[in-house]
């Protein structure tokens, strides 16, 4: 089956610093990757969609200068939270969609990254 | 918001009982999926039902889809303590997944 990894799984940083989260598709080429945010006991909110080699499309209300997304290769997308503040503390989850064994597949989710900003 | 609605928000049952949760959405969809999430962990994909399907089974799971009512239900039969988790529906619309609010299920031994 398709596997998506995220790194780091957990990060604590000081207010004002930037944090980069990586999302990798391990056994398939991800033409599209998605980034979600989840607050405690809440649902997942789609933040942005990124297609390999092009700029990410952000959902309404998501600051693109705050959450920088790069999808430079078919197996890697990164989310950088710039100048992080305590309100950015959240669980960030990526998913990937692409072609596996010649079949265009559904989204596969990474395990998530817990960000805590002090 | 494009998010779907789920009910109930929380469900507490005893082992062996069935658990049913419902999801409603507003847009046209390609498929609808159900996920499970243990506290603080990632998502586990449970089942996908396509827009031209009405019912699907997977082990103790049964999913129905009524596109005329824009609703779906997930039934977990003979629940176990290990089924304790949050369950989310997610509908695929225009290539994006939009998630429901989730149902917290607690199964007590």
Describe the structure.
The complex is a heterodimer of chains A (118) and B (109). Chain A has 118 residues and is mainly beta. Helices cover 0% and strands 58% of the residues of chain A. Chain A contains no helices and 12 strands. Chain A has strands spanning 4-7, 10-13, 19-25, 29-38, 44-51, 57-58, 67-73, 76-81, 90-100, 103-104, 108-109, 113-117. In chain A, the strands form 2 sheets. In chain A, strands 2, 4, 5, 6, 9, 10, 11 and 12 form an 8-stranded mixed beta sheet that branches. Chain A has a 4-stranded antiparallel beta sheet with strand order 1-3-8-7, with no helix packed on it. In chain A, a hairpin with a 2-residue loop joins strand 7 (67-73) and strand 8 (76-81). The radius of gyration of chain A is 14 Å and the shape is globular. The relative contact order of chain A is 0.33. The mean pLDDT of chain A is 91. Chain B is mostly beta strands and 109 residues long. Chain B is globular. In chain B, the strands form 2 sheets. In chain B, strands 2, 4, 5, 9, 10 and 11 form a 6-stranded mixed beta sheet that branches. Chain B has a 5-stranded antiparallel beta sheet with strand order 1-3-8-7-6, with no helix packed on it. The termini of chain B are far apart. Chain B contains no helices and 11 strands. The A-B interface holds A 32, 34, 36, 41-46, 49, 91, 93, 95, 106-112, 114 and B 3, 31, 33, 35, 40-43, 45, 48, 88, 90, 92, 95-102, 104.
């Amino acid at each position: 089956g398709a596997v998506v990894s995220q790194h780091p799984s957990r990060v604590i940083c000081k207010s004002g610093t930037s944090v980069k989260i990586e999302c990798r598709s391990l056994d398939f080429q991800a033409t599209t990757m998605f980034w979600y945010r989840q607050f405690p006991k809440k649902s997942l909110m789609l933040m942005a969609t990124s297609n390999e080699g092009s700029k990410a499309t952000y959902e309404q209300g998501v600051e693109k200068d705050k959450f920088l997304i790069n999808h430079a290769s078919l197996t890697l997308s990164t989310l950088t939270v710039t100048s992080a503040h305590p309100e950015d503390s959240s669980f960030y989850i990526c998913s990937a969609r692409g072609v596996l064994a010649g079949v265009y597949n559904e989204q596969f989710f990474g395990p998530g990254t817990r960000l805590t900003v002090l | 918001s494009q998010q779907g609605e789920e009910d109930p928000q929380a469900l507490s049952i005893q082992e062996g009982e069935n658990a049913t949760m419902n999801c409603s959405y507003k847009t046209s969809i390609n498929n609808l999926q159900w996920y499970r999430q243990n506290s603080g962990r990632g998502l586990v994909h449970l089942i996908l039902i396509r827009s031209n399907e009405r019912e699907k089974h997977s082990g103790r799971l049964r999913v129905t889809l009524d596109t005329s009512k824009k609703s779906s239900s997930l039934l977990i039969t003979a629940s176990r303590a290990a089924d304790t988790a949050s369950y989310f529906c997610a509908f695929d619309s225009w290539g994006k997944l939009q998630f429901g609010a989730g149902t917290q299920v607690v199964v007590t031994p």
